[in-house]
Amino acid sequence: MAELILSLKDNPYFGAGFGLVGVGTLLAVLRRGLQHSLIFFRRNYMTTLEVTSRDKSFYWLLQWLNSQGRRTQHLSVNTSFQQLGPGKIETHFFFVPGPGVHYIRYSKSWIQVERNREKQMTDFQTGVPFESVILTTFGKKQKLFEDILHNARQSALLMQEGKTIMYTPAASEWRPFGHPRKRRPLSSVVLDKKLAEYIECDIKDFLKNQSWYTERGIPYRRGYLLHGPPGCGKSSFITALAGELEFGICLLNLNQTGLSDDRLNHLLSVAPQQSIILLEDVDAAFASRDLTKENPGVYQGMGKLTFSGLLNALDGVASSEGRIIFMTTNYPERLDKALVRPGRVDVKLLIDYCSDYQLQQMFLKFYPHCNIQQANIFVQEIRQNEIGKSISPAQVQGHFMLYKSSPKLAISNVNKINI
Ligand code: ADP
């Protein structure tokens, strides 16, 4: 036995193999040691923060990262897109740092920003891939990350200050659509005498009286139907009103493909607090039930949304902060009575063609240096014209735009108003 060991020891091949094994083991030990030291180093001398896409701060943080001086060249885009009507499409692009590793310098510290996108995991609520952003920096700097989150939130809120946020449905939740819009002053929408004040008071009164509803077991919601010819200010008024109340607007298109009863129900129940739910042109989605029987084709393109599904969803809408639903239509006579019964629609208002008062007020708003006499001459001229009998504020606005600096020409050319 001793002889065998001695002979193996002298064997050059065996010696070399032994050496190799030795080197391999040493390397493995070193690698292990390095890994442990790295873990130790990360634990004790680095700070990391993970923000997942389920967290509200996620998009704030991405926007903030992109707004930092050292902009990354590796971007990804969030596009919001909305079909507003035939041939009317609105698109907005937001650029945010793309998946991968980026470096930024903030408050004298280098920060590694790692954006990860999971290929296998999707958020079951929104159907989008699960994502996270991991911020890493040297030292124990929890405060630094708190500052960053605070700043990200502040700048996101600053962007919204004095603005109205429009939300549109994305899968089963509401997402802000485009950049927040500058609030439109309520006074810039000229409705007939006292009409705007009436709606504004009604809503403010509703918002103040939650206990009245709860004490009587009435769902805390209020529905409004604004009807009338196109271009008379239905949408503009609702947008301005939302601005006045500091509410957002959840824009829901009932013709949207893929909108089922369940989804609508869910969307209405998760609509952001402090927002108005706006169903524009409700007649386009649902003709009266009798008409639908006669003409089943009308139901085409409605996805799996049924009329009773819409009614149920509207009835189920209530929230502790009060739910306000606005519907608009150019054809109120096409609406089913069940849709507009009290409880679903509490206030119905006609937003009609211009009254004399509106013409006069629009003239004075457009030409503030003119006096009431000139405004009245404009009204007289308009009424003497055939088109002037039923003229919409949109037409009047278009006419004034042609004569921005000349009220005289606006008066003398009333016969040229576009129909
Ligand atoms: P509707 O929703 O009734 O079809 P919109 O609100 O979309 O009408 O109005 C279309 C355009 O006409 C907007 O640019 C808006 O500024 C202008 N407009 C309509 N009505 C009024 C109004 N009453 N006062 C001021 N501008 C108006």
The second-level CATH architecture of the largest domain is 3-Layer(aba) Sandwich
Shape: elongated
Count of DSSP strands = 15
Output mean pLDDT.
82
The tally of helices reads 15
Q: Which structural class should the secondary elements be placed in? A: alpha/beta
Spatial strand order of the main sheet: 9-8-12-13-14-11-15
Count of folded domains: 3
Major beta sheet, specifics?
A: 7 strands, mixed
CATH superfamily of the largest domain: P-loop containing nucleotide triphosphate hydrolases
Fraction of helical residues: 40-55%
Bound molecules: adenosine-5'-diphosphate
The top-level CATH class of the largest domain is Alpha Beta
The CATH topology of the largest domain corresponds to: Rossmann fold
Rg = 32 Å
N- to C-terminal distance: 114 Å
The secondary-structure element order is HHEHEEEEEHEEEEHHEHEHEHHHEEHHHH
GO cellular component, one term: mitochondrial inner membrane
Catalytic activity: ATP + H2O = ADP + phosphate + H(+)
Protein name: Mitochondrial chaperone BCS1
GO molecular function, one term: ATP binding
